[in-house]
Write a structure and sequence with these properties.
Length: 155
C-alpha cells in the first residue's frame, strides 16, 4: 500500500513513492557502476599518473639543479686554485726577474768599476810619465824664468 508523504489540498500526494523509485535507484546504481569503471576510475588513474610524472619531473629538475650547483662550485674552486697557482707563478717569475736584474746590475757595476779602475790606473801612469818627462823641462824653464827675472844665472 502506498501512502503519500505529503498531500496537497485536494488529496493528491506531492511525492508519490512506488516501484519506479526503486527502478530509478537501481538504474542510478548501474549507471554509477558503469561510469565509475569506465569514466571515473580511468580519469583518477590518469590524474595520478600525471601527478607522479610531474613529481618525477620536479625531482629530476631538483636533482639536476643540485648537480649543476655542485659542478659550478667545483669549477669555481678549480678556477680559484688556478688563479692562486697563476699568482704564485707570477710572484716566482717576478722574484726571478728581480734576481736576474740584480745579477745583471751587479755584473755591469763590476765591469764599470773595473773600467774606472783601469782608466784611473792608466791616467796615473800617464800622469806619472808626463810628470817624469816634464819635470826636467820644468826645472830648466823655471831656471830660465828666474834668470830673466833676477837678471842673473840661477843654479
Amino acid at each position: 500500500m502506498e501512502q503519500p508523504i505529503v498531500s496537497l489540498a485536494g488529496g493528491h500526494p506531492l511525492i508519490d513513492i512506488d516501484w519506479t523509485a526503486v527502478v530509478q535507484f537501481l538504474l542510478f546504481l548501474a549507471l554509477f557502476a558503469v561510469a565509475n569503471r569506465f569514466l571515473f576510475q580511468p580519469y583518477l588513474k590518469l590524474r595520478e599518473r600525471r601527478k607522479a610524472g610531474i613529481e618525477g619531473a620536479r625531482e629530476e629538475a631538483e636533482r639536476m639543479t643540485a648537480q649543476a650547483d655542485a659542478k659550478l662550485a667545483s669549477y669555481e674552486k678549480e678556477i680559484a686554485m688556478a688563479r692562486e697557482r697563476a699568482g704564485e707563478e707570477g710572484r716566482k717569475i717576478r722574484l726571478e726577474g728581480i734576481a736576474h736584474e740584480r745579477e745583471v746590475t751587479n755584473a755591469a757595476r763590476a765591469q764599470a768599476q773595473a773600467a774606472i779602475d783601469d782608466a784611473q790606473a792608466t791616467m796615473r801612469r800617464e800622469t806619472d810619465a808626463a810628470r817624469a818627462q816634464l819635470m826636467p823641462q820644468a826645472e830648466a824653464l823655471a831656471r830660465a824664468i828666474s834668470s830673466k827675472l833676477l837678471g842673473r844665472e840661477v843654479a
